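Sharing a chain and its predicted structure for anyone who wants a worked example. Both blocks are below, sequence first, tokens second.
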Amino acid sequence: MSARFHANRTEPRPARRARTVEESPDAAVGGSTSPTSVTQVNWDRGSRDIAPRNSTKVRYRNGMKLTDDSIGSIHLIRAYGPGEIRVGEQTVTSSCLLRADKMVTDWRPQRIDDLTAEDLEPIFALEPEIVVLGSGSRQKFPPTSLLARLLSRGVGCEVMDTGAACRTYNVLVSEDRRVVAALFLQD
């Protein structure tokens, strides 16, 4: 009898099979992606097994898009922390606007409470389809009149804390979306 149990049942958990692939060291630097060794453990899914039990053939279920953050003209956020973010090799310590190909570091408002209708004009000049608004260490919404102004121009807006906004911005840029990150680094 297995020592594993479901959280809300007392029967043992069904036997599982999983397969792991160890890739060759040169795969990490853009070389071959063929596996050098295969350890096979099976996931028991009834008739929907991933691979036959005795198979050593490796199948990948999903593809993954990788983005090189060293591409010269694309601004990706490499790190963020209290009061600063790192875009490429540049450290930014004040509120900023980011688009994949442009960075505005002299944006006037320093806190989300300082945001006015005039401060939205530089955002509109970047022609986004969506704005990711990072409001500081905690999520805080701007006045609804400012959000309504964005929406009236056909621009979507997502409000979140700055860390989540940095991550969301990177994902949307990697999907080739017209996104602008408006990031406040002070609370």
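Comments welcome. The longest strand covers residues 35-40.
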